[in-house]
Amino acid sequence: MLIVHHLGNSQSERVVWLLEELALPYRLVRYERDPATRLAPSAYKALHAFGTAPVLDDGDLRLTESGAIVEYVIHTHGAGRFSLRPGAPNYADFLFWWHFANGSMMPAAMTNGLVARLGGGDDPLARSLSARLDLAYDMVEARLKNVPYFAGEELTGADILMLFPLTTMRRFSPRDISGYPAIQAYLQRVGARPAYQRAMAKAEPNLAPMLS
């Protein structure tokens, strides 16, 4: 059976959501963050060298990195569901948003959160770095004005990866999304999915999903 090592308030919620969408059996092992540092506890850091979430066990295999885990599960256990093949008309959109999630939006959100913590203020570099997150949100808003999901008409792995920086990541890098109506509508669409509701109830039983 698949085992998901889930760190509270982390990207590992993506894996839980995917497994619920695929209706795959799994065991969830939940770890609380260190109350002082708000980082992973020593037990979680001991799971693998880099010490970050998520971590997935599949028999003797231990896999990390949310993008890698999502791709592995989709193709190894999910019969390719939530993926697109080359030649599909929206294949390039699917690839772009899949990689934009961790390649551009997450780094921008993390940098923005660090700049705020360090009191970047009027420093030109700090302003430039924070502007990247503004641009990312503008790009997401423009995309979701035209399609219900990132790859087009149907939920895909691109949504599994893109949702986290729009929701839980805002606990670390606060963002007012009241000026983004398409993003708000998208979050409500995802929030209405039974699999997402089940996933968040299991992954974060004491926290309401950040869907507004």
Salient structural properties:
alpha+beta; Glutaredoxin; Glutathione S-transferase Yfyf (Class Pi), Chain A, domain 2; four-stranded mixed sheet; 9% strand
Helix and strand pattern: EHEHEEHHHHHH
CATH hierarchy, class of the largest domain: Mainly Alpha
Q: Can you tell me the residue ranges where pLDDT is under 50 for at least 5 consecutive residues?
A: none
Q: Which strands sit side by side, in order, in the main sheet?
A: 2-1-3-4
Strand portion: 5-15%
What is the annotated CATH architecture of the largest domain?
A: Up-down Bundle
- What percent of the residues sit in helical stretches (DSSP H or I)? 40-55%
The CA-CA distance between the termini, in Å, is: 35 Å
* Count of helical stretches: 8
Mean pLDDT: 94
> What's the total count of β strands?
4
| Derived structural class | alpha+beta
What would you call the shape? globular
